Amino acid sequence: MSKRILVIEDQEDNRQILRDLLTNADFEVIEAEDGEAGLAAAAAHRPDLILMDIQLPILDGYEATRRLKANAALRTIPVIVVTSYALGGDADKARAAGCDAYISKPYSPRQLLAKVREYLSTSVPTR
Amino acid sequence: MLGVPLLREGTLIGVMGLARPVVKPFSTKQIELAATFADQAVIAIENVRLFSEVQTRTEELARSVEELRALGEVSQAVNSTLDLETVLTTIVAKAVQLSGTEAGAIYTFDEKTEKFELSSTSGMDAALIAAIRERDIRIGTPGIGQAAANRAPVQIPDVRNEPSELLDVVVRAGFRALLCIPLLGANRIVGALVVRRRTPGEFPQSTVDLLETFADQSVLAIQNARLFREIEEKGRQLQEASRHKSQFLANMSHELRTPLNAILGYTELILDSIYGEPTDKMRTVLERLESNGRHLLGLINDVLDLSKIEAGQLALSLDDYSLSDVVHGVVSAVEPLAAEKRLAFKAEVSSDLPTGHGDGRRLSQVLLNLVGNAIKFTDKGEVAIRSWAANGAFTVAVCDTGPGIAVADQAKIFEEFQQADSSITRKKGGTGLGLSIAKRIIEMHGGRLWVESEPGKGSTFYFTLPMRVEAQAGPS
Fold first, then answer.
1. ∠ Cα B207 B210 B213 (to 5°)
2. Quick one: what percent of chain B has pLDDT higher than 70?
3. Which residues of B touch A106 (CB under 8 A)?
């Protein structure tokens, strides 16, 4: 059974890259375009891992991560936050929000895939 | 009657006359006696004259000393403080004191409204100040306006003889005599200095001369203050413009990077055969696409770093780090590059380096830049990293056997977009920003980065920084 990854990202190009990368690596990909839809998708689909962008409409990545980690049913899902290089202190803010790991843009798809695999192999299965 | 001349060194200064009612010639003895008295009188008169002369000289001297001291205080005030208010108040107070008057004021001339504005006062009560402020004083107005129009001092020995709307105010306040000195710049009217006395009468030329000196000092003070204000304002505008520029660059870099991320991302996916196996030809082109994209990304990142440093937005993330880890991290990143150029590459790190406190990631960036440059510019020989700790500071040296840098170019390489030889930019790549950023990052750690080099003898770049950096140093 392939693992399910929720990609919360508002930019179509980035979503497509992640979709192509992860699908090719035999993951099941579900997508959300804003923080609120992301939370709903997490609750509905119970993914094995979440890739969270920071600059999102409606609810930003920090707040979405905080709410996920405050939800007893969802807090065990590993969250990898994708921070932007441009904004200093993002890594600290991401950690403070409770994410499990962060990767900063610009990321290499290859490195991102390695990080996803690392967290999926160590995480407690949720299903 | 007997008359005896009073002679001082042969000059007649008086006559002593003796008379008696008896008709009889004076004897020689009497005449001699009278002459002796006359001599005594001359000495007595001379003593008194000398005494009063000494007294006058002493008074003059005391006044000169006082004037000199006052002038000294005034010029010191002019030179030591840029607070115009303080300077002008000092000048007015001294002018009043030394001119033997009871009140005085300095007016500044506003070129826009063409009016004189009361600036500093001495010995004037609030009612008089308010009454004068209500009046419009222009060039030609009796008193100071007249002095300004004539470009020369004007004195009014008795104000009651020259009635005018403005002067009536002064008369009502109990003043009788005025002396007005214009404050003149090179080719403009700067203002006026006035002193007022309660008794009527002419002012002596010495007072006029003295106040003219004070007026010159006032002009200097006013012009200094004006220039200072202008410079300050210009500086503020420049700072603002620079901040806007940096903010613009920061936004721009961010916006440029977003599409570039997509370009690089897709390229990598194609190279990883996610969309099918590319042909060798396609692969070669894609690799070029990728390396150009990475170069562009490097440029954008460097511009962003630099603009953040300039805008004071680059915050060091201070934490414990191991210098040895920093060095080894950089070594493993660049070892393949050195191997590709068949360069000997070594790193010597003291085994007992203490734990540092600073921004380890930024320090890696600095070292990576220095070592990357060394490898880039060295075609044969070796590149070596040495690091040690002494006196609470770390020092790292990056030594190469490259072409070396002429002394004349050594300062230039730390400036933005400068390489020692601009043709190198095309041959060797690089953004020309790395060293400038590296230097600033080290300075933000309170450290120093420099180069020692000689053409033909290789280069050694050094940086030294405190082992424990508790607070970020401001941008230089």
1. 150
2. 95
3. 257, 260-261, 264, 297
Answer yes or no: do B317 and A110 touch at CB < 8 A: no
Q: Which residue has the tokens 């007005």?
A: B180
CA distance A126 to chain B (A): 29
Q: Which secondary-structure segment (H or E) carries A111? A: helix A109-122
Q: What is the mean pLDDT of residues B105-127?
A: 89
- Position B286 scores a pLDDT of 92
Interface of A with B in 68-107 (CB under 8 A): 84-86, 88-89, 91-92, 105-106
- Token reading at B396: 């790292």
List the end-to-end C-alpha distance of chain A, in Å, as a whole number: 11
Q: Work out the burial of residue B264: count CB atoms within 10 Å of its CB; fewer than 13 is exposed, 13-18 middle, 19 or more buried.
A: buried
CA–CA separation, A28 vs A26, rounded Å? 7
CB B376 within 8 Å of CB B413: no
Q: Is B365 helix (H, G, I), strand (E, B) or coil?
A: helix
Q: In B185-322, at which residue ranges do the beta strands (DSSP E only) sit?
A: 189-197, 319-321
Q: Are B435 and B441 in contact (CB under 8 A)?
A: no
For residue B360, the surrounding DSSP H or E stretch is helix B360-377
ipTM: 0.83
Q: How far apart are CA B351 and CA B320, in angstroms?
A: 17
Q: How far is CA B100 from CA A24, B56, B210, B433, in A?
A: 100, 17, 12, 68
Please count the residues of chain A.
Answer: 127
Report the distance separating Cα A56 and Cα A83, nearest Å: 12
* Chain B touched by A108 (CB under 8 Å): yes
The CA-based dihedral angle spanning residues B83, B87, B92, B97, taken in that order and rounded to the nearest 10 degrees: 140
Position of tokens 């980035």?
A: A14
pTM for the full predicted model:
0.53
Q: What is the crossing angle of helices A12-24 and A109-122, to 10°?
A: 60
Pick A86's closest partner by Cβ from B254, B262, B268. Answer: B254
